[in-house]
Amino acid sequence: MERWLAKQTWDRLFVYLLFLLLAGPPLANWLLPFKVRKAHFLYLALLVIAIKLLAAVPPALRRYRAAGAEGTAAQWKALFPPTLGGWIRMDKGYWHAFFAWVQRRPALPPLPPGQPIGYLHKSQYTTVLAMVFISCLADLPVSAMIIGVVEQNPVIRFRIHAVMLALTLYSLVWVLADRWLVKASHHVLGQTHLHLRVGSRFTADIPLEAIVDAVRLGEPARQWSERLGIAREDYMKVSPFDAPNVLLTLTGDPALLVERFKTVQRAPTYLLVFVDDPACLAQLLKRRPGAVCVNA
Q: Does residue 183 come out as left (phi exceeding 0), alpha (psi in the -120 to 50 range) or beta?
């Protein structure tokens, strides 16, 4: 249980617990011969959150002690999960991008100069985004019908409807903002750096001398990592949605940093990137002249 919780991010755990609280009581009362109170599922959710918080105490104390030289404010900040601030900045940036989309103005700073390396021409991102958008809208009448069947109290039913409506509208804001950001970004191969950009989800400026190798990736990332025995923390996917098709091997320099979901972290040994023309990107990174890529 503890090992499973350690692997779950807070956003994924929130989705699991939300499903548990909404769908758990009616399913349990339908399957079990005895009455199950909703409070029992609330206690279970609080217990899972408590275990998750307790599992985060040892690394938080290590960060607290390591930040001692930076002052009291830095120590208190170190007690919180590193990704918490990133998700807060991510949410703020998405709301900014949403209003930028409404006003039809740019939401990202200008891209660095260089050769653009596109990833949307052959991506399934637009299709998946449309499916998510439709599912969010279709979820409202379906949820209203299910809640009307399983909950008889009109006050509680109204509260559940209000929560579901707020979550749906919030999700639509993120969907539209992410589309606006991803549509305005692409990778750039400059004179000295490979600039990787996927909306506001991923940002990295990789020095070309830090790229040891660049080859096409012809198998799923999980299959590749299992075949070579590479740990999950040693590689990172850089893609709007699609399976990566270029494998970048880096030097492993601890000073090399990337920003993923607005959280700055050390760059892994491998970056798994999706682009429209993987063969061309590999040729360019190997300094082969004459390569013309499918641009953004």
A: alpha
What are the beta bridge partners of residue 235?
270
Burial of 8 per CB tally in 10 Å (0-12, 13-18, 19+): middle
- Calculate the alpha carbon distances from 275 to 4, 65, 110, 245, 282 in Å: 33, 42, 20, 7, 10
Predicted TM-score (pTM) of the model is 0.77
What's the sign of the alpha-carbon dihedral 55, 232, 108, 173? negative
The two structure tokens encoding residue 157: 């039913």
Query: Could you tell me the CA-to-CA distances from 244 to 257, 261, 271 in Å, in that order?
Result: 20, 18, 9
| Distance from C-alpha of 106 to C-alpha of 97, rounded to nearest angstrom | 8
CA gap 16, 21 in Å, rounded: 9
The Cα-based distances of 8 to 14, 52, 53, 75, 239 in angstroms read 10, 9, 12, 25, 21
Alpha carbons 182 and 241: distance in angstroms, whole number? 11
Alpha-helical (H) ranges within the chain are 2-7, 10-31, 38-55, 57-66, 72-78, 82-103, 125-150, 154-183, 221-228, 278-285
pLDDT in tens, 124-178: 998 988 888 888 778 777 777 777 776 677 887 788 878 888 888 998 999 999 9
> What torsion do the CA atoms of 266, 267, 269, 274 make, to the nearest 10 degrees?
150
- Measured distance CA(187)–CA(204) in Å, rounded: 10
Report the distance separating Cα 121 and Cα 81, nearest Å. 36
Question: From CA 149, how far away is CA 32, in angstroms rounded?
Answer: 18
Q: Specify the amino acid at residue 3.
A: R
Distance CA 195, CA 185 (A): 11
The residue with tokens 């009362």 is 29
Which strands, in side-by-side order, build the sheet including 193-198?
Answer: 115-117, 187-189, 193-198, 202-207, 257-260, 263-266
